[in-house]
Amino acid sequence: MTPKQLSILVIDENTIRASIIEAGLREAGHGQVTLVHDVHAIARRVSEVQPDVIVIDLENPNRDMLENMFNLSRAVKRPIAMFVDRSDQAAIEAAVDAGVSAYVVDGLRQERVKPILDMAISRFNAFSRMERELEDARNELESRKVIDKAKGILMRSKGLSEDEAYQLLRRTAMNQNRKISEIAQSLITASELLGGG
Amino acid sequence: MSVSDSITAGFLPLLDSAILVAARERGFAEEEGIALTLARETSWANIRDRIAVGHFEMAHMLAPMPIAANLGLTPMRLDLIAPMSLGLGGNAVTVSRNLWAAMAGEGAARPDDPGVIGAALRGVIQTRRRKGEDPLRFGVVHPHSGHNFELRYWLAGCGIDPERDVEILIVPPPLTADAMAAGRIDGFCVGEPWNSVAVAAGLAHIATVKAAIWRSSPEKVLGVRADWAREHGAVLARLLRALHRASVWCGEADNHEELADLLSAPAYLNQPAALLRGALDGELETGGGTWRFPDFFVPAQKAAIFPWQSHALWFYSQMVRWGQVPHSAENAETARRSFRPDIYRAALEPLGVPLPAASMKVEGALAVPTPVGVSAGQLVLGPDGFFDGAIFDPVHLDAYIASQRSAFR
């Protein structure tokens, strides 16, 4: 007999990350997933959904409220404990490193919950990686614009070709042990100060 | 000093993170060869979890937190010690403007008279009950907090049952003003600057303060992972010396302007310096005028950072009173030993500063400032009275717990 589907509540103010976790859980066959973005709705949603497992991001300031709620029998009908079993130090570390925490209803077997937390951890990590890559791409685009602008200044003021202008920026950066974009930014600033921008 | 030990300490954006901030920003930690990193957190649960997994060695903590951890009340296994307090006082009880208007109608006036303020609140509660209105809701920051216990102590002492006559909810400090604006809570007990933030927003009135409910009472501690402290005793001693110097600096009125500036930075409290200054000087805008509160926040004087074991036992007595833990001699001993005056004394002894000879004192016994026995120099303690005139003698813990059981529990 297959056990009853677990009801999972995902609390995350970051709607994109919450959707990524939800998708992961559904792909893994968990049909009963509820998302909460609004921190003020947490208490009501917990009593409505009666979740077996709660996944919450560590940036959420309401963790203290949530934990207190679990201690009050009148707020939640079933006792809920932090998933991170006292003996499972590695799981605690992986979760905290990833920025996520989980709580489960008392008596739920470890092997049923472990894959859910593992899923949340890997999706949190994937999301952080994605954010870093996005940030890198944004910086890359930004520095390319700065370099193009600096090249333009050099081409106009020194009568260089585009390639010569770039080589000059590159050589200067190497000599000063700095990034090309930094040299380019300095040049733009100087040019603006001198009124030639 | 060339050799540098790294310590990362977590903190929440509250005024009483001042000693840690000063230790870093004014170079007291660096002078002791310690690279101190401060990491701002969003919840006490995060502070606990990050200490447990080793992201932090120590943290700015609610004084009852190490006690709760050692008593096994936290979801994960964690042994903590408190070798230093981070000052006395610093909290207030703040109510919505509507509630204050109703309380004023029942005779509430001076915020330094919690007995009268509490009687007025009881009057409001009785009227609401007659009209069939919902119980008033108060926010505190954590179940194991000075805020929760002093709010309950004050309510119970004024004939208000904290379990039945009001509803007490957990609200994170930075969200208290929002929660009040949205009508989710009618009042809260929280540390500064969050009372002043709600008053400045025109939402609230400061009803009374921690220093009026229990003068010179404990609030935050430096919570340190016990195994780290055992293995790094010498580094911890150096940090405690740095924090001692930082506390003395914070206690000088001449430094309050600079301290308010430091704390106002985006990485720390991220609030206007002018809003922080009042609490440092003990002068708060209550919403009905500025009021001077003696000993509102004490970072240095009166042995403010000495980790009194009588403070630990008082918190324990309140954990028992409100059903968080059953009373036993063994539990009481675990609570007492969570605070470590021995480590404090050993660390500060080389500085030749006055150190209390005792580890416990009778709380509420000093009506006026009183010189006490110390190792060197002079030390004046008190006044330290409870608003109801009660005395807590840690030697008679059982009797104290029994006496409180008859009131409401």
Q: Which properties best describe this structure?
A:
heterodimer; A: about 200 residues; alpha/beta; D-Maltodextrin-Binding Protein, domain 2; Arc Repressor Mutant, subunit A; 2 domains; five-stranded mixed beta sheet; 7 helices; elongated; B: about 400 residues; 3 domains; globular
Q: What layout of secondary structure does this protein have?
A:
The complex is a heterodimer of chains A (197) and B (409).
Chain A: E1 8-11, H1 15-27, E2 33-36, H2 42-49, E3 53-57, H3 63-71, E4 80-82, H4 89-98, E5 100-105, H5 110-158, H6 162-176, H7 180-193
Parallel strand pairs in A: 1-2, 1-3
Antiparallel strand pairs in A: 3-5, 4-5
Chain B: E1 5-11, H1 18-25, H2 28-31, E2 34-40, H3 44-52, E3 58-62, H4 64-70, E4 80-85, E5 88-89, E6 91-96, H5 97-105, H6 114-130, E7 136-140, H7 146-157, E8 166-170, H8 176-181, E9 187-191, H9 194-200, E10 204-209, H10 210-213, E11 220-225, H11 226-231, H12 233-251, H13 256-264, H14 273-281, E12 283-285, E13 290-292, E14 297-298, H15 309-321, H16 329-338, H17 341-348, E15 370-371, E16 380-381, H18 397-405
Parallel strand pairs in B: 1-2, 1-3, 7-8, 7-9
Antiparallel strand pairs in B: 3-11, 4-11, 5-14, 6-9, 6-10, 12-13, 15-16
Overview of this structure, please?
The complex is a heterodimer of chains A (197) and B (409). With 197 residues, chain A is an alpha/beta fold. Chain A folds into two domains: 8-132, 3-Layer(aba) Sandwich (D-Maltodextrin-Binding Protein, domain 2), CATH 3.40.190; 137-193, Winged helix-like DNA-binding domain superfamily/Winged helix DNA-binding domain (Arc Repressor Mutant, subunit A), CATH 1.10.10.10. Chain A is built from seven helices and five strands; from the N terminus they run E-H-E-H-E-H-E-H-E-H-H-H. Chain A has helices at 15-27, 42-49, 63-71, 89-98, 110-158, 162-176, 180-193; strands spanning 8-11, 33-36, 53-57, 80-82, 100-105. Chain A has a five-stranded mixed β-sheet with strand order 2-1-3-5-4, with helices on both faces. In chain A, strand 1, helix 1 (15-27) and strand 2 form a beta-alpha-beta unit. Chain A is elongated. The model of chain A has no long low-confidence stretch (mean pLDDT 85). By secondary structure, chain B is α/β, with parallel strands linked by helices. Chain B folds into three domains: 5-88 and 218-286 and 293-345, Periplasmic binding protein-like II (D-Maltodextrin-Binding Protein, domain 2, 3-Layer(aba) Sandwich), CATH 3.40.190.10; 91-213, Periplasmic binding protein-like II (D-Maltodextrin-Binding Protein, domain 2), CATH 3.40.190; 358-405, no CATH class. Chain B contains 18 helices and 16 strands. Chain B has helices at 18-25, 28-31, 44-52, 64-70, 97-105, 114-130, 146-157, 176-181, 194-200, 210-213, 226-231, 233-251, 256-264, 273-281, 309-321, 329-338, 341-348, 397-405; strands at 5-11, 34-40, 58-62, 80-85, 88-89, 91-96, 136-140, 166-170, 187-191, 204-209, 220-225, 283-285, 290-292, 297-298, 370-371, 380-381. Chain B has a five-stranded mixed β-sheet with strand order 2-1-3-11-4, with helices on both faces. Chain B has a five-stranded mixed β-sheet with strand order 8-7-9-6-10, with helices on both faces. The longest helix of chain B is centred in the middle third of the chain and has 19 residues, at 233-251. Chain B is globular and about 65 Å long. The model of chain B has no long low-confidence stretch (mean pLDDT 95). The chains are: A alpha/beta (197), B alpha/beta (409). The interface between A and B is medium-sized, with 24 and 25 residues.
